[in-house]
Design goal:
Blueprint: H1 3-6, H2 16-32, H3 34-38, H4 45-58, H5 79-90, H6 94-113, H7 116-128, E1 133-136, E2 152-156, E3 159-170, E4 177-183, E5 192-198, E6 204-209, E7 218-229, H8 240-276, E8 278-279, E9 282-283, H9 288-317, H10 323-348, H11 358-365, H12 376-388
Parallel strand pairs: 1-4
Antiparallel strand pairs: 2-3, 3-7, 4-5, 6-7, 8-9
Length: about 400
């Protein structure tokens, strides 16, 4: 971690525990995660995800994904800690950032809204890296408009029966449990539920795997009269949408933090290249156009960091809901990171488009962050609603 990258740790958003976490986690990731990234993309992505989750658990870092009562590092989920972890991992490996993020998001509804029984059953395994988690909300016709979902759950003897399909589900095929969101048609027209479904549940299946620009486990899951017990309900019956949106409200800022990490890595690559590459008799870094571009990238990164950690600090210390702040952070950080990475690739020239090169991979990895957990367009609508007071 360079002195420039440590600057933000001195901001008043953090306490000493956060600063210690950032430094210790960087040292660990540099030794344990960086080698995975250097191995390239010609690996079994499922197996590597399992390995990374196990290593994160053994290193004690997944303790930040669960509350202290169930072995976590902090009394409740601390968004600043989650953001620092994702920002760090994103600078070493996009897949490692994904693996950490899904342990948090996939167990987040249980941590935030689950019964004591659900927390005791699932969270220790998540913390130890022995149980892989997934969050199943999206459907073919229900992405940004989650209320358009068609998967249903109906009361049956002894529990609930789920029917339907979810798609673009991260960790599909490797998760040990899924938090699934459904309509509850027998309870009312616009009533939703949230349920924990184990991967070995009867009537559950993974029907398809989806290949993306930046490989990670992603697929379609289906429910054919899939039975779960009454105890599998997360939160009050009928409040599934509140569970989903409340969880996203916590983790949306961490998406922005990952984008910040990607942008930092791209800037570092651009600076290193600009200093050693000679063009027209002098280093590329001495050309005014290059210096102007580097300056713009640095400003975008600092502005993103301010928005990210403002949102995280606000959620941790001021308010339970930070929809506006988190939306601003995600919108600005992900869009800015896209521009920073594109500028870095441009500065690298031909070296930037070589398949598998760090900046080329960043170029692919950043793109999805402008879509998942709320597209940039949706974030703009959220922000406008908050500002206009609609």
């Amino acid at each position: 971690m360079t002195a420039r990258e440590r600057d933000h740790l001195g901001w008043p958003f953090f306490d000493d525990a956060h600063r210690t976490l950032a430094r210790d986690f960087w040292s660990w990731a540099e030794g344990e995660i960086a080698p995975h990234d250097e191995a390239g993309e010609g690996h079994d992505v499922d197996a590597l995800c399992r390995t990374i989750v196990r290593e994160l658990g053994e290193g004690g870092w997944l303790r930040f994904c669960v509350p202290a009562l169930h072995g976590g590092a902090i009394a409740k989920l601390d968004v600043r800690a989650l953001c620092l972890c994702r920002e760090t991992l994103a600078q070493f490996s996009g897949l490692a950032d994904f693996a950490f993020a899904m342990q948090g998001l996939g167990s987040g509804p249980i941590s935030l809204y689950g019964s004591d029984e659900l927390k005791a059953r699932y969270l220790p395994g998540v913390r130890e890296g022995k149980r892989i988690a997934a969050f199943a909300l999206s459907e073919t016709e229900a992405g940004s408009d989650v209320t358009a979902m068609r998967t249903t759950a109906r009361r049956v003897n002894g529990g609930w029966a789920l029917n339907g399909e979810k798609t673009f589900i991260s960790n599909a095929g490797i998760a040990d449990h899924y938090v699934v969101f459904t309509r509850l048609p027998d309870e009312g027209e616009h009533v939703f539920g949230a349920f924990v479904v184990d991967a070995d549940a009867r009537g559950f299946s993974v029907t398809d795997r989806i290949e993306t620009l930046a490989p990670h486990p992603l697929g379609t899951i289906a429910f054919d009269d899939c039975r779960v017990k009454h105890t599998a309900v997360v939160g009050p019956v009928g409040k599934g949408l509140r569970v989903a949106l409340g969880t996203l409200d916590v983790f949306r800022s961490t998406v922005a933090a990952a984008a910040l990490g990607f942008a930092r890595r791209a800037l570092n690559a651009a600076i290193a290249h600009a200093k050693r590459r000679n063009v027209f008799g002098k280093p590329l870094a001495e050309h005014q156009l290059t210096r102007a571009k580097i300056a713009e990238m640095a400003v975008a990164i600092d502005a993103s960091a301010l928005l990210v950690y403002r949102a995280a600090w606000t959620r941790d210390t001021v308010a339970d809901r930070v929809t506006r702040e988190a939306a601003m952070a995600k919108l600005y950080a992900t869009e800015s990171a896209q521009h920073v990475i594109d500028d870095a690739l441009q500065l690298l020239g031909g070296r930037g488009v070589i398949a598998g090169a760090p900046v080329e991979r960043l170029y692919r990895e950043i793109r999805a962050l402008r879509i998942y957990e709320g597209t940039s367009e949706i974030q703009r609508l959220v922000i406008a609603e908050a500002v206009l007071g609609d």
